[in-house]
Amino acid sequence: MLLLAFDTATDVATSALVQDGRLLGARVGAARSLLGDVQALLDEAGVSKSSLEALVVGTGPGSFTSTRIGLAVARGLAVALDIPGAGVSTLDALGSVERGAFPIVDARRREVFVEGPRAVAPDDLVLDAGTVCIGSGAVRYRNTFERMGAVVPPDDDERHVPHARLHAALATHFGPLEGIEPLYVRIPDAEASLA
């Protein structure tokens, strides 16, 4: 099966083209360049959009706007190409990089998104000594987590990036994309500031 996978929930947007579990190509960019990255992946692999058989999209949690961009692109492509899709949590994808790794996504507002999913202040987490923390939240709050005895790989370590190939590997159930909902965890920043 030829899959196009992407995740735009964090500060980096990742995309991957996967056929029968084999990675044909991958890109790391920004949410605003997602369609260009997708086209580049297809061109580099020498396949057309009409060859795609399914989509996999990251559902967050992460930035409200960036997550919406990914879901909107996925829904648009699914309708245009008449193909099914699957949603995979950004935290689940990150956590699949390394057995026992603890995925943490920067949630802004001095919080992080963690498994549950839930948003918490970094100091409110209880981590076992030696826990490997990965993701944008682990990088941003490195000092806090290391003070707890956790291990945070160097900032440029690939384990901090929710690569779309990980999403593709976790996708198991494909269906209509309009049924896939984002994992926002909390209300958008704009609504919070109005309250």
Describe this structure in words.
The protein is of the alpha/beta class and 195 residues long. The protein has two domains: 2-90 and 162-194, 2-Layer Sandwich (Nucleotidyltransferase, domain 5); 95-158, no CATH class. It is built from seven helices and ten strands. The protein has helices at residues 34-45, 64-81, 90-95, 136-140, 142-147, 164-170, 189-194, and strands at residues 2-7, 13-19, 22-29, 54-58, 85-88, 102-103, 105-108, 111-114, 118-120, 133-134. A hairpin with a 5-residue loop joins strand 1 and strand 2 (13-19).
List the defining traits of the structure above.
195 residues; alpha/beta; Nucleotidyltransferase, domain 5; 2 domains; 5-stranded mixed β-sheet; 3-stranded antiparallel β-sheet; 10 strands; globular
Helices and strands, with pairings:
Elements: E1 2-7, E2 13-19, E3 22-29, H1 34-45, E4 54-58, H2 64-81, E5 85-88, H3 90-95, E6 102-103, E7 105-108, E8 111-114, E9 118-120, E10 133-134, H4 136-140, H5 142-147, H6 164-170, H7 189-194
Parallel strand pairs: 1-4, 4-5, 6-10
Antiparallel strand pairs: 1-2, 2-3, 7-8, 8-9
